[in-house]
DNA sequence: CCCGCCATCCTCCTTTCGGAGGATGGCGGC
DNA sequence: GCCGCCATCCTCCGAAAGGAGGATGGCGGG
């Protein structure tokens, strides 16, 4: 047991969840909750004043969301370890978080002990992943020989309009480009998302939270 | 203050949330948390043995989900008041819950005091809605002169295949019906969802959590 | 017992999609 | 200074999608 307990910050927009997390960490001799933030901006401010060792953060928040907050947090304080604690285990969320340099990615259905251990592991420089996340990553490596390039901003713009029900012609008018250009963008999107029609494309994009 | 405090049951699949909720209600003289369940089945069993006055329940749970649990709960114990406490305020969730006869619908970002008051109001026979839910209902009544009939099971079956990228012909083969029948189902779906093509239809259906 | 809803099928016709293939100019990184 | 990515445009063409309109049988509730 170190003489100075781990300083933990909790970031979640739900008071219920913040309460629950704080409760799970009270009474532990080696971990102290030193701050709670309801969004990314608060988290950044509190990180400066409270100097936590580890941050438990939800990804989905109003205002500055999880990934943005993580990036800025790590830019300001490279020594702070961030554990993402979220309800979702979608593809896009996980990879966004991992590429933002988190020390862990846990689901909110994790039991108390797993959370404690994750915080200790993160503080010690280790990494923690929920088992479901782990299998998701394995799945990604195995059947995914295609690098699956991300659609360009312009392509996403087209896709968003398609999702709203626009025809190619309407997209063309809205974006001030020709209909054939719209088709070209869409064709590229199909390739990148591994689908072959617009309906499947919008579904794939929504599942990956691209639109 | 009544001589017997309100008996409250908490139903949520996330330990963190259960802890948080329990913490929010401990120390109150007029409300006691008598049971916690992690899914609908547990909730039904505990309702029988613990006889709560009010149940706080998440809608999204593994196994028997919120709406199913509410319906069976109210069938077994018509006197129990159910408050839905969820992260989402989507159209379909709200209306499913309301038609299941809940006493309240709150979002998890509700502050502590609002939860307390909601439980008291529900126990007293009242109804409570988050303000965001309220405005959602108002929106529904105002610009929605169309009753917006729900798609039939068969129509949803078609729509799910469409969302996976199937063409009408493929849907026809998969469901052992003719392509024209697929088109007819789709046409009806378009009308019901207020869209005019399949891409928009799958988006609308996903947003309303129909597929 | 009928009426309405559902699922199923049909034809005819127009519009749209999506594929194949190729071309151009701009811009940024190495 | 070149290469790659992006956005833009083009033609040709077949395959779908979608609209209009009508028809049938089954099944359940009032």
Task: Give a description of the structure.
The structure is a homodimer of 211-residue chains. With 211 residues, the first copy, chain A, is α/β, with parallel strands linked by helices. Chain A folds into 2 domains: 6-141, Rossmann fold (3-Layer(aba) Sandwich), CATH 3.40.50; 153-207, Orthogonal Bundle (Arc Repressor Mutant, subunit A), CATH 1.10.10.10. Chain A is built from 10 helices and 6 strands, in the order βαβαβαβαβαβααααα. Chain A has helices at residues 15-25, 40-50, 66-76, 91-99, 112-123, 131-141, 153-163, 168-175, 179-193, 198-207, and strands at residues 6-11, 31-37, 54-57, 81-86, 104-107, 128-129. In chain A, strands 2-1-3-4-5-6 form a 6-stranded parallel β-sheet, with helices on both faces. In chain A, helix 2 runs parallel beside helix 3 and helix 9 (179-193) packs across helix 10 (198-207). The longest helix of chain A has 15 residues, at 179-193. The model of chain A is unreliable at 141-147 (pLDDT under 50). Chains A and B meet through helix 1 and helix 10 of A and helix 1 and helix 10 of B. Chain B binds a DNA duplex (30 and 30 nucleotides) through residues 152, 154-155, 167-169, 177-178, 180-181, 183-188, 190, 196-198.
Please identify the oligomeric state: homodimer
Tell me what portion of residues of chain A adopts beta-strand conformation: 5-15%
Largest beta sheet of chain A: what is the strand line-up?
Answer: 2-1-3-4-5-6
Mean pLDDT of chain A: 86
Helix proportion of chain A: 40-55%
- In the CATH hierarchy, the architecture of the largest domain in chain A is 3-Layer(aba) Sandwich
At the first level of CATH, the class of the largest domain in chain A is Alpha Beta
- Could you tell me which chain pair has the largest interface and how many residues each side has? A-B, 35 and 35 residues
């Amino acid at each position: 047991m170190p003489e100075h307990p781990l300083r933990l910050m909790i970031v979640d927009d739900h008071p219920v969840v913040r309460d629950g997390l704080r409760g799970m960490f009270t009474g532990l001799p080696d971990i102290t909750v030193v701050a709670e933030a309801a969004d990314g901006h608060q988290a950044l401010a509190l990180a400066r004043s409270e100097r936590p060792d580890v941050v438990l953060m939800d990804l989905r928040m109003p205002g500055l969301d999880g990934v943005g907050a993580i990036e800025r947090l790590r830019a300001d304080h490279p020594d702070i370890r961030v554990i993402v604690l979220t309800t979702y285990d979608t593809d896009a969320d996980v990879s966004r978080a991992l590429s933002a340099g988190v020390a862990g990615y846990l689901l909110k259905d994790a039991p108390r002990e797993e959370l404690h251990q994750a915080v200790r592991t993160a503080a010690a420089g280790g990494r923690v992943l929920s088992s479901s996340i782990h299998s998701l990553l394995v799945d990604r490596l195995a059947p995914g020989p295609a690098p699956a390039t991300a659609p360009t901003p312009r392509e996403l713009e087209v896709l968003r309009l398609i999702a709203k029900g626009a025809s190619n012609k309407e997209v063309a008018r809205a974006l001030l480009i020709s209909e054939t250009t719209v088709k070209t963008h869409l064709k590229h999107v199909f390739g990148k998302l591994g689908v072959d029609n617009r309906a499947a494309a919008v579904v794939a994009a929504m599942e990956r939270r691209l639109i």
